[in-house]
User: Which sequence fits this backbone?
């Protein structure tokens, strides 16, 4: 039996507006710009977790189903993230307990705001390529 800790699974939702911009949040805990998301709770499905996390961090209720655009593994943090392209169904972007600021960002702005490991998630979702991207990173840079 292995004594290594298991991976956790997280989801992130890249909400795209009618102008093709992505909604980014600035996290309160580390000040980083990322798409909204977080770790799945034991009892929830992936779509439920995605809807909950986006709503908690942005005030936006997303439409389901959402499109899977990438799978990302943080090699140092042992987190596997499923990233989805989403459309807003209801609500107005607002900050909350976990969110310091929000902004709609163009492709060009995303790379300037977010670390490479998170910018690529947003860019992959903006492209919505098929099949989904599969990438690894160290928490900041792609590996």
Assistant:
């Amino acid at each position: 039996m292995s004594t290594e800790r298991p991976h956790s699974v997280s989801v992130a939702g890249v909400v795209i507006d009618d102008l093709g911009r992505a909604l980014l949040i600035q996290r309160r805990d580390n000040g980083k710009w990322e798409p909204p998301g977080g770790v799945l709770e034991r009892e929830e499905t992936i779509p439920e977790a995605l809807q909950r996390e986006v709503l908690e961090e942005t005030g936006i209720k997303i439409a389901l189903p959402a499109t899977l655009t990438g799978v990302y593994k943080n090699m140092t943090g042992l987190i596997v993230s499923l990233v989805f392209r989403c459309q807003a169904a209801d609500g107005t972007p607002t900050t909350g307990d976990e969110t310091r600021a929000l902004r709609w960002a163009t492709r060009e702005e995303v790379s300037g705001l977010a670390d490479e490991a998170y910018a690529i998630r947003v860019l992959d979702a903006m492209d919505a390529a098929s099949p989904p991207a599969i990438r690894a990173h160290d928490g900041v840079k792609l590996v």
User: Anything to note?
Assistant: The mean pLDDT is 94. The radius of gyration is 14 Å. The first strand starts at residue 8 and ends at 15.
